[in-house]
Design a protein that fits this description.
By secondary structure, the protein is an alpha+beta fold. It contains ten helices and eight strands. The protein has two domains: 104 residues, Homeodomain-like (Arc Repressor Mutant, subunit A); 153 residues, Multidrug-efflux Transporter 1 Regulator Bmrr, Chain A, CATH 3.20.80.10. A hairpin with a 4-residue loop joins strand 3 and strand 4. The two termini are 16 Å apart. The mean pLDDT is 91.
């Protein structure tokens, strides 16, 4: 089974159990992904989070039932996973622009979010520059924080960590220490459990452990190294989307399951010529 088929199987599982109390662990398991990799891949390919997809689909089905039946609104609220009619009405209005009572009474037009079908683009309209390299294990010196995967909290909090690193001067220290395999500062996600990851901001480094910094060892791997050109924050997710929707489906490589790296330079992050890299372990 390809990773695209695995992802579609997870989406089909969500659709079959929309009215159940779904856990992100059970959904990711259907795709044979870790929770972190499933959430990240889903967001990159669909531009919405897993929880947002489930919310939109449930409220779409609720709207159909509201308009086509005489089911009480309080019963619809409980059926589609809301603890109170007030919570249901608030979410309904946010998605559809009207309250449930108004929609039923005046037959207002409502928003419909259809079931997802994952399709990949094998046209390769925009060229991708990459190389395959092999390296022994190497060390990253940096700072680490743990982030919750619950409700995609990590996606909101990791950018704040980068802000902190810029503000307190840690990034300048990391650029000065950089003496290892990769030039620049790296971001690394480490799967910790189904509910949390460790995220590192560091630099490749050879020598004694620097004061106030921790050491992470990256295992020996074969790497697909992709060029990223353009300003942040848009350039990095654009290339990630190409990798997942074009490169992996059309190549013979699979993800090796060890940590990936995003590599950043000390150039102006808003420069249209900014150069960055994505390192993915492959097999």
């Amino acid at each position: 089974m390809t990773w695209v088929e695995s992802l579609q199987e997870a989406i089909d599982y969500m659709e079959e159990h929309l009215l159940d109390d779904l856990s992100i662990e059970s959904i990711a398991e259907k795709a044979n992904f870790s929770v972190f990799h499933f959430q990240r891949t889903f967001v990159i390919l669909t531009d919405i989070s897993v929880s947002e997809y489930l919310r939109r689909r449930r409220l779409t089905l609720a709207a159909y039932e509201l308009m086509e039946s005489n089911t009480k609104i309080i019963d619809l609220a409980y059926k589609y996973g809301y603890e109170t009619p007030e919570a249901f009405s608030k979410a309904f209005r946010k998605q559809h622009g009207v309250a449930p009572t108004e929609a039923r009474k005046y037959k207002r037009k409502l928003k419909s979010y259809n079931r997802l079908v994952i399709q990949v683009n094998l046209k390769g309209g925009e060229p991708m520059n990459y190389k395959i390299v092999e390296h022994d294990s190497f060390k990253v010196a940096g700072v680490k924080r743990e982030f919750s995967l619950v409700n995609e909290q990590n996606q909101r909090d990791i950018p704040k960590m980068w802000d902190d690193v810029h503000r307190d001067g840690t990034d300048n220290l990391l650029f000065k220490l950089n003496n290892g395999l990769i030039e620049g500062v790296v971001g690394v996600c480490i799967d910790k459990s189904s509910k949390a990851i460790d995220y590192w901001i560091g630099t490749t480094y050879e020598g004694e452990s620097p004061e106030k910094l921790s050491i992470l060892e990256i295992p020996a791997s074969k790497w697909a190294v992709f060029e990223v050109r353009g300003p942040m924050p848009d350039a990095m997710p654009r290339v990630w989307k190409q990798i997942l929707s074009e490169w992996f489906p059309s190549s013979s490589y699979k993800h090796a399951g060890t940590p990936e790296l995003e590599v950043y330079s000390d150039e102006n992050p808003s420069s249209p010529d900014l150069y960055s890299e994505i390192w993915i372990p492959v097999k």
